[in-house]
């Protein structure tokens, strides 16, 4: 689009903005596992393992239970990329903020769904997770995942080993960033499990203000 300049100076790469997104990511995974049938909304590896196990054991209903969030994750990734392509030059609001608003609306809807709609609830949370992973994948310039830990754990350990070899403080900062992400995710998962047991299906609404905080922070230009 001619005459439209991309928005610059967003804080989506800062740890402050990422903090609440990561916290929400851990909360979502604990939520679906605790009160939505022990499904991993974010960790699709676990769902694929359980899906394959059910398939080979010919447990078709169980297979479908784990297939739904996997497919929702694929669709969510595609939708986030479509929004990125279509709105990356939109001037009034950053496309990543639009993704956050979509996440908030969908998670609000999940909280209204009773247990009978459990598969749909899991699909929506997995869809949100995929949008988040596709949209927010860098913190302090380092590639990371806000809704799962294995990549962060590998990258953090690799950086820590490199630091002990060369004693470069920047590499140490990189390692600490990754381990901080894992810690925040774990805190989110812990609160998610406790609050879900207390509040039930509506506990997912707690993620909405967390995401709104990151949404607001992204209006502040980076220094």
How would you describe this protein?
The protein has 223 residues and is an all-alpha fold. It is built from eight helices and two strands; from the N terminus they run H-H-H-H-H-E-E-H-H-H. A hairpin with a 2-residue loop joins strand 1 (138-139) and strand 2. The two termini are 28 Å apart. The model is unreliable at 1-9 (pLDDT under 50).
Structure characteristics:
223 residues; two-stranded antiparallel ribbon; 70% helix; globular
**Structural category:** mainly alpha
C-alpha-based Rg, rounded: 18 Å
Count of helices?
Answer: 8
Order of helices and strands: HHHHHEEHHH
The total count of strands amounts to 2
Beta-strand residue fraction: under 5%
| Cross-sheet strand order for the largest sheet | 1-2
Reported for the largest beta sheet, the result is:
2 strands, antiparallel
| Alpha carbon gap, first and last residue | 28 Å
Instruction: Summarize the amount of helix as a percent range.
Output: over 70%
Mean pLDDT value: 88
**What overall geometry do the principal axes of the alpha carbons give?**
globular
Unreliable residue runs: 1-9
């Amino acid at each position: 689009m001619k005459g439209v300049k991309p928005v610059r100076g967003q804080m989506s790469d800062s740890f402050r903005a990422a903090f609440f997104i990561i916290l929400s990511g851990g909360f979502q995974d604990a939520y679906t596992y605790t009160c939505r049938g022990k499904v991993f909304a974010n960790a699709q590896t676990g769902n694929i393992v359980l899906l394959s196990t059910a398939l080979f054991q010919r447990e078709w209903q169980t297979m479908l239970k784990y297939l739904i969030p996997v497919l929702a994750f694929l669709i969510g990734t595609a939708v986030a990329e479509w929004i990125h392509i279509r709105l990356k030059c939109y001037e009034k609001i950053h496309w990543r903020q639009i993704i956050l608003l979509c996440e908030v609306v969908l998670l609000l809807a999940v909280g209204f769904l009773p247990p009978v709609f459990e598969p749909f609830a899991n699909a929506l949370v997995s869809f949100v997770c995929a949008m988040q992973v596709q949209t927010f994948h860098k913190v302090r310039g380092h590639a990371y995942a806000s809704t799962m830990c294995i990549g962060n754990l590998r990258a953090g350990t690799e950086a820590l080993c490199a630091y002990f070899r060369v004693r470069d403080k920047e590499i140490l900062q990189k390692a600490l960033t990754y381990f901080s992400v894992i810690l925040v995710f774990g805190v989110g998962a812990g609160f998610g499990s406790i609050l879900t047991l207390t509040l039930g299906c509506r506990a997912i609404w707690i993620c909405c203000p967390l995401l709104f905080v990151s949404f607001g922070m992204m209006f502040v230009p980076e220094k």
